[in-house]
Amino acid sequence: MTKLHLAVALDGTGWHPASWREPDARPAELFTAGYWVDLVREAEAGTLDFVTVEDALGLQSDRPDGPDERTDHVRGRLDAVLIASRVAPATSHIGLVPTATVTHTEPFHIAKALATLDYVSQGRAGWRVQVSGRAHEAGHFGRRTLPVVVPGRIDEPATRAVVQELFEEAADYVEVVRRLWDSWEDDAEIRDAATGRFIDRDKLHYIDFDGKYFSVRGPSITPRPPQGQPLVTALAHAEIPYAFAARSADLTYVTPADADDARRIAGRVGTRHVFADLVVFLSDGAKDRLDTLDRAVYSSDAAIFSGTPAQLADLLIEWQAAGITGFRLRPGRLPADLRSITRELVPELRRRGAFREAYESPTLRGLLGLTRPANRYAVEARVA
Amino acid sequence: MPKQIHLAAHFPGVNNTTVWSDPAAGSHIEFSSFVKLAQTAERAKFDFFFLAEGLRLREQGGQIYDLDVVGRPDTFTVLAALAAVTTHLGLAGTINSTFNEPYEVARQFASLDHLSGGRAAWNVVTSWDAFTGENFRRGGFLAESDRYSRATQFLATATELFDSWPAGAIVADRDSGRFLRDGDAGAFRHTDAHFDIGGRFNVPRSPQGRPVILQAGDSDAGREFAAATADAIFSRHGTLTEGRKFSADVKGRLARYGRRPEDLLVLPAATFVLGDTDADAAERAAEVRRQQVSGPTAIKLLEQLWNRDLSGYDPDGPLPEIDPDVSDAHIARGRASVRMHRDPIATAREWRERAEAGKLSIRELIIEVSGRQTFIGSAATVAARLDELVQNGAADGFILVPHVTPGGLDEFADTVVPLLQERGVFRTEYAGPTLRDHLGLAR
Asked: Which of B69, B99, B177 sits opposite A198 (nearest CB)?
């Protein structure tokens, strides 16, 4: 059978807000390198395709309209690109896909940061593109004001125009980043002692992007990275982000409620890879216990699975048949549910012939069966 | 006890001083080169590793400059990765205060400081040129006269963000269910002419509290900025006389900010060539300078003063008879050094006289005027010279710039450092885990 792909979404001590209170959680170490290295090595031991690292340009909050004053949930996080980079030399095969926000940042900086992550990981870099519609994050930059957008209602007419604009900007942003990655041809560095030239400047290209939101001249200061273009991924729940992902991403994360929903969504998403997000609790009663501790029933944009690894394997295979190519599992608890994934779910899937026995490629694109993209400028040069 | 010397390793940059044509020269972009230099520096107990930055590829005569090393990694990303392969070495990055925003830069430095266990340093640089701005959202929005006011406010804002989480803000007490001590951790509000921002910073206080602040400007405004805010200042003044003058100047400015002379370290950038004997080193130094200034490079460097296309001139022939073009549009773009030629016509006259007197070709003249290496000699000579400069108040230490990547520091680490240690002026073990510990700075 076709193998399915598996990723794990790392965030704090896990996706349940009370997960930090679990006996094996390490909440006091969240801001140390060792914490992240241990998690990613665990994921690598399970031969997972990649990990994502959540991030945002603002403090976590339980309110959609700004920061809260809560003291009982994890607050604070480190920059995800830097976590991924710190982890890269300590791992060898697993893909590293940090979240980076496009709304308030510079495409030039993000392009070189992800290219550099690809260099330090020798071809394992990816990017989860994050659009920020959060008014309080805009306030951290002071360059524009945004109305409060409630997640889950982005297709409503009142917010649609704002959201449409944010995603148009995101599409321009990804276009600029991809052009910057291509702005050096692979063989631009020549070190020609005879003429004294370090590069062949005909193989460096101005990208000359001139759009509604910004213009960028280029070329990048960083040569084309090992994968040519690191993997671009995006989470999408509705029509506007589906369209954005189809245009801009290599892989889309979606949030189906069940297999039928998975079939419907998979048919609408235009990327080669469609990963379903699932929050997973792989131990009896774990979610209920944490809900009690939190005095609230945890809910999520993604479906929540509670059960055994064998039951989860059943579900994954059923959804795979509905057109899902892989899964991004959000462990309810770290490290507990991650360990259940690598030590129980993965062997179960292997027994069924549904998951790799060992890493078969040194690059993230390779693990996902994606080719190294041709350089648009090299192609143009050949045609001309 | 003699004054202790501080040493840093500068990853070779994108100037002609970096000899990429050397048979030993390796990649300037593969991570392995960064690992090699950083691990050599750490083995030699250096204070920190340093990365420069340039946010637009240089051009000359309207074309991308192709004779020097071109291409470099993202500063934050490569430093975070180096934190994985070193344990004590400080990790210093140059980050521009014009084409960034304080919230983002503060969280990147705070993150780097966490991920490295307290080893981050920030070389705060300013720029204003529209040429670099073409790569960014806001373009060339800043007037030259405003660049230090933006840098000052940028750093002040970032500092407020670093300080917005008190130490001990995270209690993470499972039993009581209290993660944060206070519900308003990270709250900030900053309003000035450049920034109007407020909200909650999202990175808890880092091991050093804030990164070590470095500053490299040599102008009066740059020196004042350093005196007000920096922990260390780079300089170009590596001789005894010039170094003492510079050091006295910047340290003399500290009192008005309530700071003591030891609160600002003066670290000139320094190049070096070693040899078995002083004569051997001098011979190698001359050869290195010939490598650094090829014929084509000599013409390009001459163009930077003349501000004209001189591609028709023979590098082995005499200097141009015509005078430099002193119009505003400059042939070289993205290069700070061109502004150092304050009176091009006078400098050109001086160069011509020097060439005529010494019967020098263009290339020979450029080799002469582009300066000797800071330290040339046997390991014993260089160690003695370094020590002399530091003990006599010309510097607190040096940022060493090797001319070959990535192995260019090996010889210094193996031969000069042990002699400095024997003299009792350089550490044999790191005294603490953080860069502030190495530099003797308060947290």
From this structure: B69
